[in-house]
Amino acid sequence: MSKSTELTLPQRAAVALGSAEHEANLKALAEKHADIVEIKNTAGREQAHGAMMTLANARVSITKAGKAARDDANAFSKAVIAEEKRLIEIIEPEETRLRTMRDEWDAEREREKEAKAAAERQRITVQQARIARIRDAVTFAAGRSSAQV
Which domain holds residue 68? Predict the structure, then answer.
């Protein structure tokens, strides 16, 4: 019994963004400036601005990595589609040829079946006409002598 080691989509996304390596650093970075609770002067404003820019740069880096991973995934997706089409083009003409042959054979069998059904309908119509003539002969002969019939 073999065990599958295939990654799930969320796991693959985490690998693409390097989440395992960056998560602890990002948490530490988020907590690093928790002691800034109020700006009282220019130096405090600069400190808050610097901390905010550090966090913003980290966010931009994550966004860029995500975009690069998505671009790679889109390029891969397009390459898979192109390869799929290329492989299908190898067999499609033969599949079409065989489908056409099969459809022609089926159509011929259907024509034969319809011809047999039409012949049977014609046979039944002829038999019904004969039966009607026999019925009419009884009505015609009623009350007449054998010489008149």
Answer: 12-108
